[in-house]
Write a structure and sequence with these properties.
This protein is of the alpha+beta class. It has 1 helix and 9 strands. It is rod-shaped. The N and C termini lie far apart (about 75 Å).
Length: about 170
Amino acid sequence: MGANCNVTSSQSCLESLISSIVKQAVAFVWQLVKRFREDVMVKMVKTVLGSAALGVWMTGAALADPAFGLWKTEVDDGAYAHVEMGPCGENICGTIAQTFNSDGEYSSPNKGKQIVRGMSPKGGGAYEGKVWRPSNDKIYVGKMQVSGKQLKLKGCLAVGWPCSSQTWTKLN
């Protein structure tokens, strides 16, 4: 029984031992209940936060501009590019992500440079801003029209001519 128990006090020893076991069992059960409650609370918080994050993501995806994404340009002076279009403030900008020529992908000094600049949405897939043409290093007054997987880009010098245009294809 216990270390302080003897034959004459065996009943009180037994009561003391049972009391000690009951106290330990109650403490153990209480710890399980606390842990269960904490686990349930953690799961509830994770569920609520996960649902909120999913809602924000879905709202953002639904509101994502159709011009956002990766676009393939037309060939210009023997080369073409993949341009990543995304937000720049309240407007849309496009940065050269990859460059290609007749031999395949190559490392152009224009990679990482902004080719579409400050395109402001005008509604109905139309945008106005500026376009940089790497082949002649000129900046044009630009207009852009997005329709499905096509982006028509037109740029004119400030005087309204000469103008140049391309139709890009959306890659993703």
